Amino acid sequence: MERRNIDAAVISDTHLGTYGIDIWQFSKHYFPPAHLAVIKEILNLLTNGTRVIYITGNHDEILRRYSDLQIGNFQLKDKLVIEIDNKMTWFFHGDVFDNATHGAAKLWTRLGSNGYAVLLGTNRLINRLMKMMGRERVSLSKKIMTQVNKSVIKINEFETLVSELAIEKKYDYVVCGHIHQPQKRIVQTEKGTVQYLNSGDWVEHLTSLEYYNNDWHIYEYDEKIMKAPEVKQVKPETEVLSNEINLFIHSLRV
Fold first, then answer.
1. Residue-wise pLDDT tens digits, 26-72
2. Fewest 10 Å CB contacts: which of 5, 54, 101, 168?
3. With contact defined as beta carbons under 8 Å apart, do 90 and 168 qualify?
4. CB under 8 Å, gap of 24 or more: what pairs does 163-172 form?
5. Distance CA 199, CA 230 (A)
6. What's the CA gap between 59 and 87, in Å, rounded?
7. How far is 193 from 133, CA to CA, in rounded Å?
8. What is the pLDDT of residues 197-209, one digit of tens each?
9. What is the rounded CA–CA span in Å between residue 47 and residue 152?
């Protein structure tokens, strides 16, 4: 795969270190080499001078106690406002608008997360069978997640609420994730205009946001066009990387 030349990238809901759900279902017994490779790449970027900003969300809310932590090129934030090409850009995860981490809603959301993890596992099994039969992959979990979002989170209302708030704050861009629905559109009200952007997720849609040529673009990974290199399970490298990750996580606790 050729590395694309971009100025910034936004990736959300990667669900690393879990079967399908972030820290809520994190297990030290499950961290496959492919997931470790992602963290290794991020550490390499940090080492080579790339600025990496981790914005907390509902599935990793425990990290919010360390908000505003900065270690070298790494920052941990709950939200972020920066200027990009003379345009004010507001970044945050988006969970604050559905109360998914508060009271009884938190319990129901976690139960739903467990069900979604099972659904993802079932979907992977189905796709293995489809591949053996030479058929196209299907995404039952994506369809169900979309229906859940429509019923519970109400995507249109979410996008409108976020955009109206961004307009009031005089921002040019508002960037979030959370609802697993990639989007790029202009929202206009009587008070002004803003460009709403959602990076989607890296579980079902396999999408991200990339900024280059003075504009934001939605990138979608296509397995038919690009094939990621196979990650070999080499135990020594995994142990070394685990030590690096443990050191990094320990630094967050200090």
1. 455 667 788 888 889 999 999 999 999 999 988 788 888 999 999 99
2. 5
3. no
4. 163/187, 163/189, 163/194, 163/196, 164/189, 164/191, 166/90, 166/194, 166/196, 167/191, 167/192, 167/193, 167/194, 169/90, 170/88, 171/81, 171/88, 171/89, 171/90, 172/87, 172/88, 172/89
5. 25
6. 30
7. 49
8. 999 998 888 999 9
9. 41
Q: Is the torsion defined by CA of 20, 21, 22, 27 positive or negative?
A: negative
> Average pLDDT in the 236-241 region?
41
The β-bridge partners of 74 are 52, 71
Place of tokens 């890296």: 202
Query: Could you tell me which residues come within 8 angstroms of residue 144 by beta carbon, excluding any fewer than 6 positions away?
Result: 119
Give the predicted TM-score (pTM) of the model: 0.68
Distance CA 73, CA 71 (A): 6
Burial 6-34 (b: 16+ CB within 10 A, else e): eebebbbbbbbbbbbbbbbbbeeeebebe
Distance, CA of 118 to CA of 77 (rounded, Å) = 30
The more confident residue out of 116 and 213 is: 213
